[in-house]
Amino acid sequence: MTGAEVLVETTGPVARVVLNRPHARNALNLPTCLALREAFERLDAEPGTRVVLVEGNGPTFCAGADLKERSGKDAAWVRGRRQASFAAYEAIERCSKPVVALLHGAVVGSGGEIAMSCDFAVATSSASFRFPEPHWGTVGATQRLQRVIGPRRAKELLFTNRVMTAAEALRVGLVTRLVEPEELATTGAELAARIAEAPELAITLTKQAVDLGTETDLDRGIRIEMAAIERNLAEGGSRAEVDTIAGKAADQDQEA
């Protein structure tokens, strides 16, 4: 547990990070931003943790930024609060462990930023998505959103403040899978267990190679992958890789 706003529960190789302000529909305030950053920095350094699931307590994943918190605050405070949210998203994004968002209910503004900072997201079929920042008189979601769904779709959502359904979110790549509400927890547990089955170093280097590859062209991306392969071999992955491949080959023979 990192504090009242964010709960961290670890079972074996799987950690659950839970937004825990159900009375405020998990709206993101300054203490939550600080707790999220602390939680992910700690989990990143935790050798026993292999996978992180991000969830929301209550019927809403996250209703966006807590606007009530800003009442009476000056520009300097608002600026510092925004920097704290950016630091929280970055801590999620930079975590070396696979991070999966489990989305339900309303996913608004900052909730979407949290989800997009994760490696991928699973949502319930009844989830909804909205990016109201311009209509709230501020600026936000202009960078991750366009990289996930494209600039034209991002502009349309930001300019209009319309609600995106879960089906549309799946279609445009904001989420990777839809499940029924009662299946979300089970699906998250199954995904985490499946990821944890893979050799840890291979998963870590795969995540790193994909992330770095998005920042360059294919030729340099292949070089990044080759460097990851060399590191995997050099750091003791050779024996594990051979054993794993041998096991998979045996499985293929049985399936054939």
UniProtKB/TrEMBL annotation:
GO terms for molecular function: lyase activity. GO terms for biological process: fatty acid beta-oxidation. The keyword Phosphoprotein does not apply. The keyword Methyltransferase does not apply. CDD domains: crotonase-like. Pfam families: ECH_1 (PF00378). InterPro entries: ClpP/crotonase-like_dom_sf, Enoyl-CoA_hydra/iso. Keywords: Lipid metabolism, Lyase. PANTHER family: (7AS)-7A-METHYL-1,5-DIOXO-2,3,5,6,7,7A-HEXAHYDRO-1H-INDENE-CARBOXYL-COA HYDROLASE (PTHR11941:SF169), ENOYL-COA HYDRATASE-RELATED (PTHR11941). Belongs to the enoyl-CoA hydratase/isomerase family. This is Enoyl-CoA hydratase. It comes from Amycolatopsis cihanbeyliensis.
